[in-house]
## 1
Amino acid sequence: MSRKQQLLKRHRRNKNIGLFIALVVLIGIAVVVSWWVRLLLPLLTWVAHEAWFADHLFYSSKDDYRYNFPPYTPQPKVHLEGDRLRLDEGVMLVDDATLILALRIKSTWLGRFFDPVVELSGGDNPDRQTFERGVNGLRYLNLSGQAQVLSRGELRLRGRFCRLLGEPVLWALEHPDYRRQRVMVIAPHADDAELAAYGLYSQADETWIVTLTAGEIEAEHYQHMGLDKVEAARLKGRLRSWDSIAVPRWAGVPEAHCVQLGYFCLQLATMQASPDQPAGSREADLSDTRLFRQLNPFALPGDVDGAPTWNNLLADLREVLLRAQPEVIVLPHPVLDPHPDHICAQAAVIEALKGLEWQPTLLGYANHLHDNDRWPMGDSETGVALPPVFEPKALLHPYCLSLTQAQQRDKAMALGMMHDLQPRAPFKRRMRRGLQRLLAGRSSSPYGENEFFRKAVRRHELFWRL
């Protein structure tokens, strides 16, 4: 059982225990109150649950985040004087450095009902970074893009529904400008490249987008059009294959640099376990990948038989790597992102790179988390604080790219073209969001209803050098 599954199992067990206790309390109250109160109490309990207790947060908001950055990372001395963050005299920062500030954040009592926010002000680019309700522990703010304001001593930090405590610690991580290199983005599914790295790949001197699967499963939206399960899955796979080739053109990526490998969703782990055995689609009644490869600009080794095997996947990846010779590969982070296809995508790239004459820089991304399904927390167009990490065994080397508002809007339009992000959310989810907007002060994204518009259209894109 994966860590994500273990956390989900524990969360559901604790939730069931809490619901049982609430039921016992309600039964006890019902004995001594009027009949109309008995009817009202269950409704109010459900409303409170949806507004304040429905987040999938698989850890205590009082737990400290624990990061282990690379040794010898520069740590400019900073001090929080009132609400002003000051560097020691004479310290200057590189404009595009990734700046990470650790400090303790403690929510007020209102911060148990409204999301605690740290507001950054003092320059031309004010920001807001959001944390868990009831937070009371060490957290890591992302100050990337604020170097000049901080160097001038003008940066102010203010807590809303929270207080900032203790002496802050700053890390300044410098990187090459990866936008000036040949970049390849590995997307397990259509839209993963855009969610994680649209800002980076749209600015790169040369970009390749390689999508591993057709993403054909969970096609209920198309079944509502009158298609049966197989027809719906095939249509969804064809649409998402088109998306993977067509949408990068919005960012200026040539069609000749967009490749769809056409393997089947949630089958990569099965393929990896038996490398020479085909793993057909779970829902599309297909064991041939060629249906989803028809738009590719050149032939691949797997086109010979269309067999969905791990060996074919490695051969396809190696062919694309040799053709493109990327200097930077952007791919899912093997620890932070728990999606099984994302884990296997990273493993396949590492295996395909073995023995090649050059070894590119690897930048990891996380479109999903083990511990918190709302991360990045907060609203569209705000900053991205570091995600929860509690086991600092491996070094984590963050790299942050700041996006202008115009770049964020272009990214939002790219996501809007993705067919998988277009259907309406289920009624229960829309009801929950309405209650949270009304009672908990949460805002929806102006760019789209799907949760990924809120999560991904931000002033930061966050990567991890592997």
Note: The first strand starts at residue 78 and ends at 81.
## 2
Amino acid sequence: MSDAIFSYESLVHAVSGAVGSVTAMTVFFPLDTARLRLQVDEHRKAKSTPTILAEIVKEEGLLAPYRGWFPVICSLCCSNFVYFYCFHSLKASWLRGKQSSPSADLIIGIAAGIVNVLVTTPLWVVNTRLKLQGAKFRNAEIRPTNYSGILDAFVQIIRDEGVGALWNGTFTSLLLVLNPAVQFMIYEGLKRQLRRGAPRELSAVEAFVIGAVAKAAATVVTYPLQTIQSILRFGQFNESTDKSKLLSSLRTIKCLLVNRVRKYGILGLFKGLEAKLLQTVLTAALMFLFYEKIASCTFRVMGLNGKHYKKR
């Protein structure tokens, strides 16, 4: 059991996933900026992603689409390292060399996601605040923040809002562990189909396409909860309403979902979906491509390539 959890193979998967995700996110980061603005700034009209980015550049400068890049990359690197490590170590200890199945991938993905959420949520709360700092919002009720960096954001949030604020949106994040779990279930299932009969390395095109398909399906299913998660992490709701109605995390989510539907209709739950799909699908596809290539090269150097493919 301990050998499966603390193994070089799990470490290789974790490092490969972290490096792949950081590289892919850097390439498509402006799309994530457009998505987050549409989710949080309720008064900004939903337009095409290029139009939103053009507005941001015009109003806030050429580098505005990359605002908050460093904290996002730090959070993403830590998050994907934890997730990939947990997923592959739990999978190795559970299956012990046996062939995996979609149900096993889903359960393992959920378990890895829970660990990841509990460990890395404070990083995502801080990076959401930093990413939106200095933005020109259509909603005048949003209060400006003034953080000088990651550490300063941690200090100010703890001082002004309490330690618990670092875990804002944790409940929605726990619900959203279904997103990577569904993504990995579909990805691993498609990979098994492509390798049926002969364990082999995926081509770059195969890794890119099945990564994109897996992420697109997971994103569409869970997008309304991702919107609520962004609002909670930003910590900018109307307090007079929230204190009386939002007595628990579940009621908080329900209240925010209902209010958004009342204001903007069902489509309001999917505001920013175009930008999210462009960003997350392309990022995930490129991330899986880098992940597969880095992992396979590393295992080849270590002389474990054949053993690695048989296990998967």
Note: The chain has 13 helices and no strands.
## 3
Amino acid sequence: MAGLSATTSTLETDINQTVAVITSYRRMIVGTLNGFDQTINLIVDESYERVFSSSQEVEQMVLGLYIIRRVNVAVIGEIDKHSVFDLGNIQAKPLNSVAH
């Protein structure tokens, strides 16, 4: 249970911050962390998915308010929303599957 309380206290500092979530089903969701529940399901607002391709520029698909179940979260991290990336010039292989 100690791991759960450490995780919730860390996530509390990220409330209202821009975060990127890599899911276990190979998606990257970026948005504002609005909150989470007692089982650490994430509530992300103003979100969009970044879709990577080795032959095309990064595509951003608007999702809006999005809930991500804890079991689907592989990695979560805060993003500096003031950093500017030229996603039109970035090409990358799609994300690999997450090994369990």
Note: Residues 58 and 86 are 9 Å apart (CA to CA).
